[in-house]
Amino acid sequence: SSGQIECAKKIMQQRNIKNVTCICTALPDLGELPDEAFDKAYAGGVFMYVSKDELQEAMQNMFRILKVGGQILIFHIFSEEMKSLNPEGRYNHLVSFYNFEELKRAALEAGFKSCEKINFMSNAREYPERWKNSIQVDNPHINLSVLLNK
């Protein structure tokens, strides 16, 4: 979101970080981004706006923009209860829920070498400085954190 990007830019300026590019663009297309341009990417709360028809294209484009050895960290809101309310797996006309297996299948089909579920909160406790400006709900029933490796 533009708010996340503004926050990141302030932190980068405070810490004199110059090797980060902040982009707010729409999945699944990522068309304006060059091939193999990024070492790491972060997708926070965006996959819920990617329809089932667009999921594979989004994964292929994320794979395309990453350098070999690159990583993408996905924070996805997921609720089995909300997903079960609609047989198409959509909460409403805007929001889609993907479980880990759906994201993993799409990632591996796109060419990612691995897709793993990570426990964000345990990582945040181990490295508190790294995550001190992040807001994350400590509830495994609604959070799905996934790391993709190219």
Report what the structure shows.
This protein has 150 residues and is α+β, with helices and mostly antiparallel strands. 34% of the residues lie in helices and 21% in strands. It is built from six helices and four strands, in the order αβαβααβααβ. The protein has helices spanning 2-14, 55-65, 80-84, 100-110, 120-126, 128-131; strands spanning 38-44, 66-77, 114-118, 143-149. Strands 1-2-4-3 form a four-stranded mixed β-sheet. Helix 2 links the parallel strand 1 and strand 2 (66-77). It is globular and about 45 Å long. The two termini are 24 Å apart. Mean pLDDT is 78; it is low at 134-140.
Summary of the model, kept short:
This protein has 150 residues and is α+β, with helices and mostly antiparallel strands. It has 6 helices and 4 strands. The chain has helices spanning 2-14, 55-65, 80-84, 100-110, 120-126, 128-131; strands spanning 38-44, 66-77, 114-118, 143-149.
